[in-house]
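Example 3.2
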Amino acid sequence: MTPPNSRFVVAVVDDEKSILQSLDFLLQSADLAAHLFTSASALIASNTLLQLDCLISDIDMPGMDGFQLLRLVRAIRPELPIILITGYPEQVKRIPFLDGSYLRYFIKPFNGSEMLAAVDDALGQPRA
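Structure, written as tokens:
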């Protein structure tokens, strides 16, 4: 977790550059440090998983998909808040229930204010 008086770190994993750019702008506007990755394997290779305060990941990606990433992250950081995003509403039925873990999902296109509220909730921070 990020030490007091420093910015929270949120990783975003999505193979769509437009989504990465939009979330980067949204998170930066809320004074959150955004780390952007175009694939799950890029996130894993970056060795930043232990420094994250929240993870936002697309579900449908080439290579390691969002569900595989979710399982891997839960094995390493079971307490890490995760927000999944998808352009395919039928995938929501496949999202596992994780007792005691923060897991939310959004269907693209999503509302930026609602996404920020979910991130704030995950971080335990009230939105001003």
